[in-house]
Amino acid sequence: MSAPNIETIVSLAKRRGFVFPSSEIYGGLGSAWDYGQLGVELCNNVKQAWWRWMVYERDDMEGLDSSIILNRLVWKYSGHEDTFSDPLVDCRECKTRLRADKLTDGKCPNCGSKELTEPRPFNLMFRTHVGATAEDDESSLVYLRPETAQGIFINFANVLTTSRRKLPFGVAQIGKSFRNEVTPGNFIFRTREFEQMEMEYFVRPGEDEQAHQEWIDNCFGWFTDLGISKENLRLYEQPKEELAHYAKRTVDIQYRFFPEREEEARQWDELMGIANRTDFDLRTHSKKPEDAEGKRLNPDSTEDLSYFDEATKERFYPYVIEPAAGVNRTVLAVLMDAYTEKTNDKGEKRVILKLHPDLAPIKVAVLPLAKNKPEIVALAKTIKHLLQPAMRAVYDDTGGIGKLYARQDEIGTPFCVTVDHQSLEDEAVTVRDRDTWAQERVKVADLQEHLLKRLGE
Fold it and tell me: Domains (ranges, CATH) in the chain?
């Protein structure tokens, strides 16, 4: 089955507690979303899966959590103050503000007018002020970070010294970033506040191209390991005119976020970017490098972020490979790819969210067949508490068994455990599979081991 459109996921997400419009009781706030009781679990599971794969399962990786507010000079020398902008135009007729690079036919999509202003740059960083100073005091100006990467670069020497690492090695980080997008939208696909999963992999110059390709292949494999279909993923090689000024090569992993669009090329958009950033960042944050005319690139820096190779007695600036993905977009892709529909024996259409077990917000739901029987309810609650330390388990008796099954299918719970009258006699329960609806009888004493094995398949 092809992926559903985003609107289908929006409906499911609000109905079942994955994502809510933020500030909804006050009319909402454009492009701001709150993750509900299931959404926060899904997001956490995505981040834990990435961290486990990126950090724990490798021998060449360290973690970091840098500050959201950094010294303004970080953004000066990274180039963000001058170049991190979108070209904007205003429609003279309806006063709508638009991104010039998204206008394919030179007219306002809101009213059709071609009376547009000349493009001008609009910096995407959120400005704020620190300290008890007036807001018009330039010395108090700072920015909310638009990416997590710079926090890694400015800590390169700290990590290198304290971890005693040798090249190649990486530093991974998960954290919030903020971009004052002109045209956010499409649910959680593009928002002004978002969470990134970024890693900077430091290598010797000359070894960067091979490392870059390896990370492209590895990252593509990670998404398929999460259960995302290969048919809905593709690699996109950014042409030279699209490359960031620091990039030697960038390849995007794209997902088919917009299957409803007629033009096939417009169905795809970025899920993860994997860039070869060369040595740009470490050079520009260092105190020593000079330009071709002998002028220091960064007179404000106090550190030299070069690397000294003890074996070769060489000093150089490492190249950096950067895989960067958004938690929001990963969650959206996971939801879209897991969404399926199935007809039961009564001809009723049911939604099944076939989430990978590692990502499912709830691993097992324990359901009493008769909620008016105290013995059955007591056993069901006991089983739930026995399972809870090993997996996310819930108890639910708020409907008939058919409705309870349907509810758990729709939120992606891999297994339901039903406690019935027979359970009181044979100390066994019925385990139902979300994807196949197959059922099997399992002894209560063996239940935790059985479920852990099934969840790990």
Answer: 6-67+147-335 (3.30.930.10), 362-455 (3.40.50.800)
